Write the C-alpha coordinates for this entry.
Amino acid sequence: MDVNIHAIPLGIGQCYIVQDQGIVAIDCGEPKKAKQFVKGMEAASIKPEDVKLIIVTHGHFDHIGSAAEIKEITGAPIAMHQREKEWLEKGLKPTPPGVTAWGRILAWLIRMLWLPFVHIDSTGVDVVLGDEPHSLVQYGIAGKVLHTPGHSPGSVSVVLDSGEAFVGDLAMNKFPLRFGPGLPIFAEDWPQVEESWKLLLEQGVKTIYPGHGGLFSIEMIQKALSL
Protein backbone atom coordinates (compact mmCIF):
# COMPACT_ATOMS: atom_id res chain seq x y z
CA MET A 1 0.00 0.00 0.00
CA ASP A 2 1.05 3.63 -0.47
CA VAL A 3 2.25 5.47 2.61
CA ASN A 4 -0.34 7.85 4.04
CA ILE A 5 0.85 10.82 6.07
CA HIS A 6 -1.42 12.88 8.30
CA ALA A 7 -0.34 16.07 10.10
CA ILE A 8 -2.19 16.89 13.34
CA PRO A 9 -1.60 20.43 14.70
CA LEU A 10 -0.70 20.34 18.40
CA GLY A 11 0.10 23.96 19.18
CA ILE A 12 2.94 25.63 17.31
CA GLY A 13 4.12 22.22 16.15
CA GLN A 14 2.46 19.05 14.96
CA CYS A 15 2.25 15.32 15.24
CA TYR A 16 2.68 13.24 12.10
CA ILE A 17 0.84 9.96 11.67
CA VAL A 18 2.56 7.63 9.22
CA GLN A 19 0.35 4.83 7.93
CA ASP A 20 1.90 1.97 5.96
CA GLN A 21 1.42 -1.70 6.83
CA GLY A 22 1.44 -0.39 10.39
CA ILE A 23 0.97 3.03 11.99
CA VAL A 24 3.42 5.17 13.96
CA ALA A 25 3.12 8.67 15.44
CA ILE A 26 5.95 11.21 15.32
CA ASP A 27 6.14 13.91 18.03
CA CYS A 28 3.59 14.95 20.63
CA GLY A 29 3.28 18.73 20.52
CA GLU A 30 2.79 21.14 23.38
CA PRO A 31 1.22 20.21 26.73
CA LYS A 32 -2.54 19.74 27.02
CA LYS A 33 -3.11 18.91 23.34
CA ALA A 34 -4.50 15.39 23.77
CA LYS A 35 -8.00 16.43 22.64
CA GLN A 36 -6.60 17.86 19.42
CA PHE A 37 -4.70 14.61 18.89
CA VAL A 38 -7.88 12.56 19.24
CA LYS A 39 -9.79 14.88 16.88
CA GLY A 40 -7.00 14.62 14.33
CA MET A 41 -7.05 10.84 14.52
CA GLU A 42 -10.81 10.85 14.03
CA ALA A 43 -10.44 13.11 10.97
CA ALA A 44 -7.91 10.65 9.55
CA SER A 45 -10.24 7.71 10.31
CA ILE A 46 -7.58 6.04 12.44
CA LYS A 47 -8.17 4.49 15.84
CA PRO A 48 -5.65 5.70 18.46
CA GLU A 49 -5.07 2.14 19.62
CA ASP A 50 -3.81 1.25 16.12
CA VAL A 51 -0.67 3.33 16.69
CA LYS A 52 2.17 0.87 17.31
CA LEU A 53 4.96 3.31 18.24
CA ILE A 54 5.38 6.97 19.24
CA ILE A 55 8.68 8.43 18.04
CA VAL A 56 9.83 11.65 19.67
CA THR A 57 12.30 13.53 17.45
CA HIS A 58 13.77 15.41 20.44
CA GLY A 59 13.02 16.45 23.98
CA HIS A 60 11.98 20.10 23.78
CA PHE A 61 8.70 21.08 25.42
CA ASP A 62 6.80 21.61 22.16
CA HIS A 63 7.57 18.04 21.06
CA ILE A 64 7.11 16.10 24.33
CA GLY A 65 4.40 18.21 25.96
CA SER A 66 1.49 15.80 25.42
CA ALA A 67 3.55 12.61 25.22
CA ALA A 68 2.27 11.16 28.49
CA GLU A 69 -1.36 11.68 27.48
CA ILE A 70 -0.88 10.39 23.94
CA LYS A 71 0.91 7.33 25.28
CA GLU A 72 -2.04 6.64 27.59
CA ILE A 73 -4.59 7.19 24.81
CA THR A 74 -2.85 4.94 22.28
CA GLY A 75 -1.20 2.40 24.57
CA ALA A 76 1.86 2.67 22.31
CA PRO A 77 5.47 2.67 23.55
CA ILE A 78 7.55 5.82 23.25
CA ALA A 79 10.88 5.80 21.40
CA MET A 80 13.43 8.51 22.16
CA HIS A 81 17.20 8.93 21.98
CA GLN A 82 19.18 7.96 25.05
CA ARG A 83 20.75 11.42 25.34
CA GLU A 84 17.40 13.09 25.93
CA LYS A 85 15.12 10.46 27.38
CA GLU A 86 15.41 11.90 30.89
CA TRP A 87 14.00 15.18 29.57
CA LEU A 88 10.68 13.38 29.21
CA GLU A 89 11.12 11.05 32.17
CA LYS A 90 11.81 14.02 34.48
CA GLY A 91 9.67 16.65 32.76
CA LEU A 92 12.66 18.89 31.98
CA LYS A 93 12.49 22.03 29.83
CA PRO A 94 15.88 22.77 28.25
CA THR A 95 16.01 25.24 25.38
CA PRO A 96 18.65 25.54 22.64
CA PRO A 97 20.46 28.80 21.89
CA GLY A 98 19.61 30.92 18.89
CA VAL A 99 21.95 30.80 15.90
CA THR A 100 20.49 33.83 14.12
CA ALA A 101 19.74 37.30 15.48
CA TRP A 102 16.01 36.54 15.51
CA GLY A 103 16.69 33.11 16.97
CA ARG A 104 18.56 34.64 19.91
CA ILE A 105 15.74 37.09 20.58
CA LEU A 106 13.04 34.44 20.31
CA ALA A 107 14.99 32.00 22.51
CA TRP A 108 15.17 34.67 25.23
CA LEU A 109 11.44 35.42 24.92
CA ILE A 110 10.58 31.71 25.19
CA ARG A 111 12.78 31.23 28.27
CA MET A 112 11.54 34.34 30.05
CA LEU A 113 7.87 34.63 29.04
CA TRP A 114 6.68 31.14 28.05
CA LEU A 115 8.57 28.33 29.74
CA PRO A 116 7.82 29.45 33.33
CA PHE A 117 4.17 28.61 32.64
CA VAL A 118 4.81 25.26 30.92
CA HIS A 119 4.48 21.96 32.77
CA ILE A 120 5.57 18.66 31.23
CA ASP A 121 3.88 15.50 32.50
CA SER A 122 6.65 12.95 32.79
CA THR A 123 6.42 9.40 31.47
CA GLY A 124 8.77 6.54 30.73
CA VAL A 125 10.67 6.00 27.50
CA ASP A 126 10.12 2.42 26.37
CA VAL A 127 12.38 2.16 23.33
CA VAL A 128 15.75 3.81 23.96
CA LEU A 129 17.41 4.82 20.70
CA GLY A 130 21.17 4.93 20.25
CA ASP A 131 23.44 6.38 17.60
CA GLU A 132 22.89 3.48 15.18
CA PRO A 133 19.96 3.31 12.72
CA HIS A 134 16.81 1.78 14.19
CA SER A 135 14.61 -0.14 11.75
CA LEU A 136 10.84 0.39 11.81
CA VAL A 137 10.02 -2.79 9.90
CA GLN A 138 8.70 -4.52 13.02
CA TYR A 139 6.11 -1.74 13.30
CA GLY A 140 4.97 -2.12 9.70
CA ILE A 141 6.84 0.93 8.41
CA ALA A 142 9.34 0.73 5.55
CA GLY A 143 11.92 3.05 7.04
CA LYS A 144 14.23 3.76 9.94
CA VAL A 145 15.14 6.22 12.67
CA LEU A 146 18.50 7.98 12.35
CA HIS A 147 20.40 9.96 14.98
CA THR A 148 20.63 13.49 13.54
CA PRO A 149 22.03 15.75 16.27
CA GLY A 150 22.73 19.45 16.03
CA HIS A 151 19.51 21.16 17.01
CA SER A 152 19.82 19.11 20.19
CA PRO A 153 22.17 16.26 21.17
CA GLY A 154 19.53 13.55 20.94
CA SER A 155 17.62 14.70 17.88
CA VAL A 156 16.50 11.95 15.52
CA SER A 157 14.86 11.83 12.10
CA VAL A 158 12.47 9.26 10.65
CA VAL A 159 13.44 8.38 7.08
CA LEU A 160 11.09 6.35 4.92
CA ASP A 161 12.33 4.15 2.08
CA SER A 162 10.06 6.16 -0.23
CA GLY A 163 12.05 9.36 0.38
CA GLU A 164 10.15 11.23 3.08
CA ALA A 165 12.09 12.51 6.10
CA PHE A 166 10.53 13.72 9.36
CA VAL A 167 13.28 15.85 10.82
CA GLY A 168 11.86 17.54 13.93
CA ASP A 169 13.60 20.91 14.31
CA LEU A 170 16.51 20.17 12.00
CA ALA A 171 14.45 22.32 9.63
CA MET A 172 11.69 24.89 10.17
CA ASN A 173 8.93 26.33 7.99
CA LYS A 174 6.54 28.35 10.13
CA PHE A 175 6.18 31.91 11.45
CA PRO A 176 7.38 33.17 13.92
CA LEU A 177 10.32 30.79 13.51
CA ARG A 178 10.85 31.43 9.80
CA PHE A 179 8.99 33.07 6.93
CA GLY A 180 9.73 30.10 4.67
CA PRO A 181 11.39 26.68 4.66
CA GLY A 182 14.99 26.41 5.74
CA LEU A 183 17.49 25.53 8.44
CA PRO A 184 16.78 25.89 12.17
CA ILE A 185 17.13 29.22 13.98
CA PHE A 186 18.03 27.35 17.21
CA ALA A 187 20.83 24.79 17.56
CA GLU A 188 23.18 23.38 20.17
CA ASP A 189 25.90 22.55 17.63
CA TRP A 190 25.80 24.06 14.14
CA PRO A 191 28.52 21.85 12.58
CA GLN A 192 26.45 18.85 13.70
CA VAL A 193 23.39 20.33 11.97
CA GLU A 194 25.35 20.38 8.73
CA GLU A 195 26.67 16.85 9.25
CA SER A 196 23.19 15.54 10.00
CA TRP A 197 21.88 17.03 6.77
CA LYS A 198 24.72 15.43 4.85
CA LEU A 199 23.71 12.09 6.36
CA LEU A 200 20.10 12.61 5.31
CA LEU A 201 21.15 13.60 1.79
CA GLU A 202 23.15 10.37 1.59
CA GLN A 203 19.91 8.52 2.34
CA GLY A 204 18.35 9.99 -0.80
CA VAL A 205 15.60 11.92 0.98
CA LYS A 206 13.29 13.90 -1.30
CA THR A 207 10.62 15.50 0.84
CA ILE A 208 11.12 17.16 4.22
CA TYR A 209 8.45 17.16 6.93
CA PRO A 210 9.57 19.66 9.59
CA GLY A 211 8.33 19.79 13.16
CA HIS A 212 6.92 23.25 12.48
CA GLY A 213 5.19 24.09 9.20
CA GLY A 214 4.46 22.36 5.93
CA LEU A 215 6.46 19.93 3.86
CA PHE A 216 9.00 21.10 1.28
CA SER A 217 11.55 19.75 -1.19
CA ILE A 218 15.08 18.74 -0.22
CA GLU A 219 16.35 21.24 -2.80
CA MET A 220 15.62 24.04 -0.30
CA ILE A 221 18.12 22.54 2.13
CA GLN A 222 20.69 21.87 -0.55
CA LYS A 223 20.48 25.53 -1.54
CA ALA A 224 20.75 26.71 2.07
CA LEU A 225 23.84 24.59 2.65
CA SER A 226 25.26 25.37 -0.81
CA LEU A 227 25.47 21.67 -1.63
Observations:
- Residues 168 and 211 are 4 Å apart (CA to CA).
- The mean pLDDT is 96.
- The chain is about 25% helix and 20% strand.
